[in-house]
């Protein structure tokens, strides 16, 4: 459903949010290990997300990535839109260029309902919720 970049970004942000709960800053090696991702790939993703304000970073011996209160309230939909664009929320289920209410594809009506449910779920899901669920051991990011 998401690109690999988006999957890693979401996992990394949730991991960083959990670590930020106790005031910690987390380095690339720990993030990569914590979410089972390639170090170089996650470094590039986080560099981009930091520039765009989704995560904070600090350099130096006590540096690393962290999230402030504002970052913790970002929705999953915001991150998906930033990385993968709006296609998940508005695209055709069959990938057709022309698909609309007046010119529908064969699965248009059924897919529109599913797409709207996904959009609502992602727009109501905040990074903070997922970090809290990790703390409570209700979910996991790595097997």
UniProtKB/TrEMBL annotation:
Instruction: Give the Gene3D superfamilies listed for this entry.
Output: Winged helix-like DNA-binding domain superfamily/Winged helix DNA-binding domain
Xref: InterPro entries: Tscrpt_reg_Rrf2, WH-like_DNA-bd_sf, WH_DNA-bd_sf
List the molecular function annotations (GO) for this entry. Answer: DNA-binding transcription factor activity
Q: Name one GO cellular component term.
A: cytosol
Coiled-coil region: none
In Pfam terms, one family for this protein is Rrf2
Protein name, UniProt field: Rrf2 family protein
Taxonomic classification:
Bacteria, Pseudomonadati, Bacteroidota, Cytophagia, Cytophagales
